[in-house]
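Quality-control log, excerpt.
Job 1 of 2 completed; input and output follow.
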Amino acid sequence: MSDTIKFETRLEEISKYSDILLINCPHNNIQFPPAGIAYLCEAVKNAGYVPRVLDINILLLQKYKTTGLTEHWEESKYEYLWQQEAGYKEMRAIIDRDLQLIAETIASCPAKILGFSVNMMNERCTDDLVTRVKQIAPDKRIIYGGFSYYHETLAKEISDLPEAVAVGDAEETIVKYMDQVSSDGSIHGISGLFVNDRKGKESFIPSSFSTPVDNIAWPRWKEFHLSDYTFLYPQLQMPVHSSRGCAWGRCTFCSASRSNPGYRHRTSESIFEEIKYLYDNYGVTGIFLTTLQVNGNYEQLEKLCDLIIESGIYFTPYGQFTIDKRMNDKFCKKLHQAGFLFISFGMESGSSGTLKKMRKGYNSRIAAQVLTACHNARIITSVNLIAGYPGETEEEFQETLSFIEENQNVIDQVEVVPTLSIHFGSELWSDPEKFEINFEPKPNQWIVNDWISFDGKNTFDRRTEKQKMIFDSVKRLGIGRGYVKQKLNFSEGRTHEFKETSFKGLIASKLDDLFPRDKALHLPRHEHPKVLILQASSDAHLVAFISELHAARPEMVMDMLVQPGAVEFYSSVAGINEIVVCDETNFFSSLEVNQEKLGMLKEKMYDTVIYVLGNLPEGFYRQVKGLALKICHGQVIGVNIQGNMKTYFPQKERLPQASNSMGVLLNSE
């Protein structure tokens, strides 16, 4: 099915009967389907209503993939352009015709209620689409919800486009709203529902946030085409809510404790039931736990690990953890055994003094211990840092740089380094004098970047300098992939960006160990080394790896063995001579691969087989390596693109499984 036909088909589907159409506009996360909408779908279905879903974000991304415009979704430099007024004009010019067609289709659909999931990035596009719909079908009842309206103060500042806004958890709110619309049409007096009129502003009743999370039905995803979300990530990964709220709730810069008060966690059995459902029905093993702290409740997490281990299924859950001294060697080893191969920490600083000012609840010594425990358990770690916290001294900033250097062997990646932003709902926002900072938010501005300290030293420009110093330190030390994945900050039209560096140099300097120029490892029948790359990972970093490999050794003849859904993803990658498509979608899950295909691959007499790994379980590694050994006539190489580049190329070791194969272990083991 072509992307244009798929786009038209998805639009045709909403012409079927529904009571509510739930809509997601660009720009939004492109790796997962929208979990918030999925939860609402389940809630209204259980109440006897018929929902339908229209994810415009992923549909437009797919449609434009042949035009070269997908960078407007993929690259971080475009994210804030979707939010800014001037920037959105650029985006609107691209999607205008399709957006009008979508508006006309929505206006004629049977659903009387249109629900829009709104976040900071898609507010302008959502308002644009709603304006068009209302011009055609003014009787449609429109309700907003989502991250942009996590607090009633935010809801009260919106335009008059929606008749109501669901504030906070919306599962119960949306059902009560639909009940009232179906009854007498009056929607006042529903807790958590801000009615967008004068009376609503006076009578808003906040949600109690008291519903046990286990009582909220988790998504079955029947209203979604999950294959749409394998466009950039052929191996489907799915979001799972394991808790709501923040177990700590004291960080001065964070608004999470106000957006979702309290901490409510699901039982381990409930979480496991959901991920087992995803495995049984969709073959999903990659699970993103969408919670502020995966380790917010240790008993829950340990029990979940036990359930996963006992199941014998190779899940690969991951998510955001908090630094906690209870993450010792024993606990981290259990995490790894359960498939937690990658952990992201919102560490924020390497200075104990700055961490105390942030009220993070730990110091740099504990942070180093936790990172070391993860490293010892062979868990890949990523840390986030903040540049320029209020009150941070120059000495404390230097302590952060020293921490990075001293712990470079146990930090696999420094992922995000934003300059500190002041968020609505945070303590920094509500009590700026306490932190000796000045800022003046503009109307409807909920994040301020261009603040200044009382002494005039902590400025936006100085924070940007610190940001770059951290970036340069990470690059110099070769931590992770030698880059910081940096999202843009914006203030009065000023943007700052640090682009990722390539693998160049890191790979080229090691290639002589793998393919010596003076002692060719390739077979005599080949004029140049013949290499097969097994697609055990599917992302932009693998593309970068292949491109740099090709640039460093253009004489290599490189083929790829890929899953059927990944053909288009890799078809235009520079350096790939031939793409061999495996017969089975999940061909790495079993070594019983089509013998005819195996024989064909063996006949090609590959000198080297490279299997490139991501965050996958050990059992998967063994299966992929076993497949590589069946194919290869020379050396087998494993590359972990998610790990520390400095640990990619240790000593060569002989693989016992095949005496004619030289194994070069390139991952962090």
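Job 2 of 2 completed; input and output follow.
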Amino acid sequence: MGRRGLIARAALSLLLLIFGIAEAGAQLVLTAGRPDQVRIDGVGPNPELRARAFRWRGLDLKTVDQQVGNATLPAVQGRCIRVEIGLAPGEYEVETDLLAGAAEWIVNDASAGRVEPAGGIGTLRGAANVPFGGMPLTLIWKADVGAVTAVREVRIRRPDGQPVELQALLPIVTPQAALQQPHEEIPPKEALRRACDYLVRYQLSNGFFDYESAALWEVGLVTRCLFLGAELLHEPRYAEAARRPLAFLASQQAPDGGFCAYAYSTSTGRIPAPTDSCHTRNIADLSFLSIAFSLAARATVEGGPALLEAHRRFLDDFADRLALPDGRFLNGRFHGQTKETAYSVATATQVVSRLSFYRAASEIRYRETAEPAARALVREWQPSGRPLFSEHGEAPAPLRPTAYHNLFYVLDALLWAREGTESDSLRSAIDQSLAWYVDGPEGLLAYLAASPQAATSLTAEDRIKSGAMLGILERIGALTGRTERLQAVIAAMRATLLVPERARQQGICAFPYDELGRKAITATAFAGLSYAELIRPGAAFR
């Protein structure tokens, strides 16, 4: 059983021991109990407990005995701790005691403060409204990166003095029968707002977004989504959230214009060894990050000119050295190895990186150097509908039409090039490639018709990026006149991405630190690109 999937065998008895529940008058008290080193891992209670009124979830959860002065107090410790409590609808006052570790506290999705116990007991207070509809009171504690926090007690009371009434929690995983029932789609603006609010909610103390990953490409993706949200929803706080990690990363740029593709140790929070000893400095990942530098400049955030200059140095001093005469790009050092063959994702992300810089700086040279790379991608597309894909050090091979893990980057690049080029011949060649992808004898529609289950039986990697495909297919249909041909596929994708219950089962806006939420941060940001495209056609590709 994997690290994420470990659940205590006797979950019912252990959970009742770990947390004593006292309902006295108008106050509900949850206090950590005694069993030593019991691990309560991510996915929450087993089926016996799902009808209960509370559950604890989180990252690296365990019970500990914490020394506070002369007293030894039990607590629940973890990097990210989440408790969900089924309560009757109404207004509540909430208090929590922390025994160790600086942490931010979030009550029903709103920040309720930050505490640094510094060896003693720190208390935080907040208020929440529990609405009708079965939504629980949700409390989240986020420790500073490289640290853990320890929760001793939670106290909940009604301000009107009425007794606290417990209700059964809805299951974490929605039954398939319920998901198959008709559900009303929410508007794309609401979906994008939910995605951006979620990304800001789980932003870490150092500006990054995922306790388990410090990958630069993920920062590039999340910040791209947030900048779209700031623009389309007129929410400056999204742009500020995006600026925070970018400003740090610009300060880590090496003299040769490159970066280490992993910014810091996720276990300690420490910045890794100097860049020349970093095992991954690959252009595919770094180019995807660099897009956000120019997006920041276009959003006119604080320090935008410096971020734009960091993008220029990356392109001129680092990426140019990996360009091949035919327009393709090498990937550079990846997991300690350097291959002397082109990589399609490196080529694709360079297209977007250069066009993003061109739009921010209005320097034609960068558009002109993006176009040969885009033409190289077009040359790899076959009339069958499947592109030839060049992997790290391997011979080109055709991709299946639902291989979104790699196809996203290629299609994203072609759509950026289609929006950015002034070459009629390149625009026409891109349209032909996109039409082949949709209607070729081995293209998307033919593949789905032959294997209908392929739309839902994706690999884990493909599923994470599948949320971006709605926006991509919407754009392809609009540009090539194939919207009607794609209508059934687009409708099915909308029925997933725009229905919150279904989207959550795909990891979108799910709690990031259990099985359901594996890579939920990136899944949510990819979906955010689609939401932006639905709001303003072309927005995600320029």
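Post-run check on job 2. The first strand starts at residue 19 and ends at 24.
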